[in-house]
Amino acid sequence: MRRAGARGTTALVAAGVLAGCSPAQFSLVAAYNGDDGRPWIMLAPCGRNDITSVRVLSRPTDRDRSPHAPGAEQESGWRSGFDAGIGGGSLPLFEPPASWRAQPDGEQRLLPGRTYHVEFYSPEDGAYYGQVYFTAEDLAGLEPGEVWAGHRSMTRKEFREHRDHQC
Prior knowledge:
Blueprint lengths: L1 H20 L2 E3 L2 E5 L5 E5 L7 E10 L15 E11 L2 E4 L10 E4 L7 E9 L5 E8 H5 L5 E4 L2 E4 H11 L1
Parallel strand pairs: 1-9
Antiparallel strand pairs: 2-3, 3-6, 4-5, 4-8, 5-7, 8-9, 10-11
């Protein structure tokens, strides 16, 4: 009985340590279609927290797709770090401000058959990541005024409420 209790305690401690090693991940990014027809993202950190890096990554949507299939090797995204943090805001998906010194990775446009992951990092309030996953098809299905966040479409008002709940 003692051995089982010790194992249980060890498992709880290990789970706590592992959970404390990685920053929390929240749905604090929305993707949407801009008035100009291009894809845009809204970075919405908690409160007045700063962001110290942003990444846009893509991968084949079909995880079983061979990496040797035509187009599977294509990349589409960028990454950036900041000397001083920035606040939230909106920007075209593939046009980060020049002051961010973004490093592009592959084509700077939405590619079919890929899932996009936009992520920012905030070292404040316990450190966390804000993120969203979406495809070109997700954005194509949005109605005017809608955004894609939390794995679904929603209005901007719903996104603000969703953000407040996440924070």
